[in-house]
Write a structure and sequence with these properties.
elongated, Arc Repressor Mutant, subunit A
Length: 163
């Protein structure tokens, strides 16, 4: 009995590994489309990640950004400098600490962020070739593993209605 349970667990792990490999490989194979989206805005993938973590209203201090981006403060400064040169971000004085600067999105940065997300979330041609029932099943499956803190989700982790 124990051997069957161990075999089933290993088998499930193998199936999960293969499914994840397929998802990962598909995502990686569609990178050129995402790269074109970023290149058209003179952004790197790292710049895009930084842009997605910023907001037009609430600013974040450089130290906070460095921790979020898992880099040192000098690298965070360099990324913010790039976003500022592109007109996507701006440093503002902190209302609580006159020595500190907060980084916020500019209106141009908020528009770029919105446009990038819209382009990234546009289904690739391979998805559009699938039957509706297959797409519904895929959506149902992916909702089971959807992260709770993904943009576009509520506190409870359920997605807001999308088009």
């Amino acid at each position: 009995m124990l051997l069957r349970m161990v075999a089933r667990a290993k088998s499930k792990h193998r199936v999960a590994a293969r499914a994840w490999q397929l998802v990962f490989d598909f995502f990686a194979s569609t990178r050129p489309e995402r790269d074109r989206t970023l290149e058209s805005r003179k952004l790197t993938a790292n710049d895009s990640r930084a842009l997605m973590s910023l907001d037009i209203g609430a600013g974040k201090m450089m130290g906070t950004l460095a921790r979020e981006w898992c880099c040192d403060a000098s690298n965070a400064t360099w990324v913010v400098d790039r976003l500022e040169r592109l007109g996507y971000a701006q440093r503002r004085p902190s209302p609580t600490d006159r020595r500190a600067k907060l980084v916020v999105l500019t209106p141009r940065g908020a528009k770029a962020k919105s446009d990038i997300l819209e382009e990234f979330r546009t289904p690739p041609p391979a998805f559009l070739k699938l039957e509706r029932g297959d797409l519904e099943m895929l959506e149902k499956i992916l909702r089971k593993v959807e992260p709770a803190n993904r943009p576009g989700t509520t506190e409870a982790g359920s997605s807001k209605k999308r088009r």
